Request: fold
Amino acid sequence: MKRILISALALTAATAASAQEIPELQSNSDWFKAGETTIQELIAREQNTGRAKNVILMIADGNGVGTNYATRLYVGQQMGKLGEEHVLPYETSDFHSALVKTYNINAQTPDSAPTAGAMNTGVKQRFNLINLGGDAIHDDCSTVAGNELTTFAELVAAEGKSVGIVSSARLTHATPAAVYSKTANRNWEDALPEGCTAQKDIAAQMIDAMTSGMLDIALGGGARYFVPKGTATPNGGTGHRADGADLLAVAAEAGIQYASNKEEFDALEMSAPILGLWTDSHTSYEADRPDSEPSLTDMTRTAIEFLSQNEDGFYLEIEAGRVDHANHAGNFARTAADGMIWAEAVALADEMTNDEDTLIVVTADHEHAIAFNGYCGRGTPIQGLCYGIAKTGEIHSDELNLADDGQPYSVISYANGSGSILREDMNYAGVRPAVTQEEAMDLDYLQQALVPMSSETHSGEDVAVYAKGPWAHLFDGTIEQNVIFHVMNHAVNAE
Amino acid sequence: MFTRRTFLSAALSAPLIARPALAAQEVIKLRHLYDRKALSDLARASEGKRIAVDGYMAPPLKAESNFFVLTRRPMSVCPFCETEADWPNDILAVYTKRTVDVVPYNVKIVTSGVLELGAYRDPETGFLSMVRLADASYD
Reply:
């Protein structure tokens, strides 16, 4: 009897629920329809459990969830949209995604060397070291021997794949170096402490990787670390190597093609390994890039064309290195311009490859101390001052929001950095200076910061990872950064 | 015609009477002296003229000096970007009338001086400049 009663109650409840209808103003809303479309897209997703012939690991340095959010709005606004609704190429439902914990073995706030190392070896590493095990000590050459890790590039090269690196930073800088080097100090780019014989400097390791056949194409900046001190570099500066080694000559003798500018880059043959260095240090910020330097998309296109010639496949790491540097400078306009071409490079890499056999992983190594202020209206320029919210329509009001000090504020601020409003000459007291929207929108504007530091810092906040292709669906939930290697390694070895 | 109204607005727009050279000039941005990595038409046209430029005082290379470097953005030193101090391409060497009273590297200043073009190596610091302001003052 009791059982019948419960069933009857359940039936009544179900009937009541089904009698509820969604009103037309809701079901006919664009938001509602778009939500339904998204569900259909997610249901239609297929899991690709094939073997990955190619892997492209794309890292926008310093592009954590916050920076990526700001870049999304910036890119949308450059296209004439309000910005918030924009979808970056890797934010579609074609991509699986997860959140990534980026800390290092001994650092809550990570740096780019061990983070890139974790993605390239499958194990977390120590602050400022690259591809050495957890017992190695920063700046201690004696701890190198026996602690060297095997990289993803070495593993796949042994299986016959080609390997490439592209970066807008120096090719000896942390993120690209994590593909080919093992070092107790990320700054040993062209020199070692006296008596250190357990490893070579990073530039020498890169040339070794190229001459041994492990690394087939390397495009980016940083020529001075390959040229002897006092000798002219192909880019018009002078070399930096105190040991006098001419690594560009070593590369040339090994039959590696060299390009130092866009013209030479465009004339490269696809038949021999390629080294391209456009600048003596990092390449220019995208906002400042002269025509003589290939862009991140130019480099991406050539690297994929070159590597695709190998029937056994390839591993390519592409870094947008200067997103990080502009954040360090507290200068969001440049962060955004580098982020914008980064998004274009992702779209290009996707377009040039086949989802069936290419795993594309899009991520960042760490976030920055970037923050977002106020209750700003839709379409407020993300690098500029915060406008109020309009009562009707979508777009912001024309009134700037004011803080308690009566001054407007930018949407973005940095928790620390050289944009600090605290003044050294005033015993680190400070008053927020008056800023106009025109000043805040200037390319050189530094968003206001609080804690005074010469260089704005990273933060340990999560980054996202987005992926498509074989085994991309393994990216889910919240993962440790070293898991990225394991997805790539599983994908290339899947039966 | 000199009316009270024009006098007032002139006084309001030039509150720093002590620095008429600055107030009388339009302040240009340092980047407008350059076109990518080359000198701009504005720089070439302004050679030998007194101009006012805004920017930031890089930490001086030498104490008690009449020389500093003006940068577009605060000359921050990023330990993860650079292993050594690199000067940006678009800077302005400034030779001042008086000994430099150091302003923090992240406080915007306006510098007025006579624009000089061409290579010059500072005898004290060895700093090589291609673009300079001479006989300069700053605010």
Q: What stands out?
A: Chain A touches chain B at residues 111-112, 174, 187, 189, 281-282, 288, 290, 324-325, 328-331, 417-420, 423-425, 442-444, 446, 452, 454-456, 458 (CB under 8 Å).
